[in-house]
Design brief:
about 375 residues; alpha/beta; TIM Barrel; five-stranded parallel sheet; three-stranded antiparallel sheet; about 45% helix
Length: about 375
Amino acid sequence: MALIETRGVWLTNTDSKVLQSKQRIVEAMDFLAETGFNVVFPVVWNKAVTLYPSPTMQQTFGVEIDPSFRGRDPLAEVVVEARRVGLKVIPWFEYGFASSYNLNGGLLLQTKPEWAARDCNGKLLKKNGFEWLNAFDPQVQAFLLNLVLEVVRNYDVDGIQGDDRFPALPCEGGYDQYTVARYRQQFNQNPPQNPKAQQWLQWRADLLTDFLARLYQEVKAVNPNLLVSMSPSIYDWGLKEYLQDSATWLNRGIVDLIHPQIYRRDFRSYKCIVNKLVAEQFTDATLPKLAPGILMKLGSYCIDPKYLVQVIECNRKRGIRGEVFFFYEGLREHNHALAKVLRNGPYAKSASFPTLSDLSGVGLSNSRSTSLWQQVERFFRNLF
């Protein structure tokens, strides 16, 4: 029986040259297919610019594409080359609702100052160096939604991906005039000054969940087979710090594939979080959607080969069928050492990327294995 797993990797434009030329993209897709991967997540929205020619960005901010890619369309190139070797493509909107990094709002907020998120002192919302757009503002939401929709309408992609910034907002935000007025209208009082007050926190998280539900609906209206993939911070830290209620996203069925960022550098920590997620956040019906985000490389850090294999073994023992690695360049380091470990070990046997029905959990038994009916159905599907 054919193996079905999510084997993904993020393609970044930070600390990576993979998108800098068409030739590099060609080589990367060949390399990933040979290594056993079946899906790529190329960045398309980062540092407040797109990595494809965007009518929305041109119209709103006068910048059609990241200037370093002018005259090219990296997303189109990735799609063509990924298709050539049988890889799925799910564009990744990395920057989400962030506006800039240590640039006081950058181009987006210079042009649209009214789009700024505010903290309880009325200052521009800033956390860990990032300044933020107001994720509750209908205009801001429409802008991000338009970026997503122009990608799914204009490119032969398999879905779209949000992350720890999309949909997200630091919990310290929400004190702008629009959101305060909306809260006051509903509760006849101002929001509490404590940004982590439970009811205020949940109310804002629910607004972001409603936005994701709308995004899910609009993407599916373009093509019901498109996947809505999310890579949030781990629950419930993500809820308390960035208003990401990913447990509710799963319960409401507004995410098809989810990659919590379990970016731990030792196996014991990783295993502990996986056990907690599987026990507390996922059910038999939602477990097929889980393919954790794994930190392969960051700065000078590179995952130990033994730890890499342990992580994948741990996932499979828990019934988790896949993972996504951050990020591509880790596979290339030390003469492709990690790629060789995958190719000769956990990814030696090729695997098909899951379909929507695979991800839905329909027909799964309590042992979280594929039901006989699903196997029969898949057999007939493969025949035609």
